[in-house]
Design goal:
Layout: H1 49-60, H2 63-80, H3 83-99
């Protein structure tokens, strides 16, 4: 008799300040070497349009929250994207290139 398993997983992030987002890898199936048959699967990515509208509505009606987000955005921009930070990242890239072993053609 086969065993059927249902799995539900929710990943939710909540931040108290502005953050930069980056892609995440989501597997919809087990690894290719797995021999377990998958009967069905689905993926729901939010925010839904309604959830996004609610978030924008909160921002529109909250001057204090808008100011806090603006300050966080300015802080992020000046620390991550300043000329000093740019120079440091370029110098770091050149250091990595200089010590990387040469690949044979």
């Amino acid at each position: 008799m086969p065993i059927h398993v249902a799995l539900h997983h929710l990943t939710e992030y909540t931040y108290d300040r502005l953050v930069s987002l980056s892609p995440q890898l989501v597997r919809l199936r087990p690894a290719p070497h797995c021999r377990t048959p998958i009967l069905s699967y689905s993926l729901l990515v939010e925010p839904t349009p309604a959830a996004l509208a609610r978030g924008l509505d909160v921002l529109l009606h909250s001057p204090a929250l808008r100011e806090q987000l603006a300050l966080s955005a300015r802080r992020l921009a000046t620390t991550r994207y300043s000329l000093t930070q740019f120079r440091a990242s370029i110098a770091n890239a050149y250091r990595r290139i200089a010590v990387a072993p040469l690949e044979s053609a």
